[in-house]
Amino acid sequence: MRHGKKFNHLGRTAPHRKAMLSNMACSLFLHKRISTTVAKAKELRKFVEPLITRAKEDTTHNRRVVFSYLQNKDAIKILFGEVVEKVGNRPGGYTRIIKTGFRLGDNAEMSIIELVDYNELMLKDAKPAKKTTRRRSRRSAGAASDSSAVPTAEVVEDSTDDASTTDAPSADADGKQDAEGEKKAD
Fold first, then answer.
1. At residue 102, what are phi and psi to the nearest 5 degrees?
2. What pLDDT shows up at residue 83?
């Protein structure tokens, strides 16, 4: 019976699949982000995350086990050095898959797989949001602030004239004003 043996073979034989995942993992550690199909990215995630977890404890045994998968000394140095330095306190979820659309030639669904703590754009967006308090009144906050923002003009009474004027320049019915802001007599 073949119960519990379901995984994506990616259209390759076992040694070809193992070599491909090993090469992709080395590229991921060296470049921190690679572009591939979604199916390969999902399989690569299952291949890479246990290696990163093993690399958190830097022992000779763990280095040899990871080297048996990757077969690349440069990738081992980067994995046990700078990658573990960034993700050492993270309990899992070291990679992120971002879908990017479809490939032109065969319409395969493409994605970018990256190490999570290396994307500066995402880290800038992850700033802690300021706390907002919930308003308990039914009045909207915008209406209250809009009415208070409108300046009111003072009314100055002229002792010789009964008409009241404002400090701001006023216009007559036709909208004509002179240079001092006073109404023109027609």
1. -120, 145
2. 94
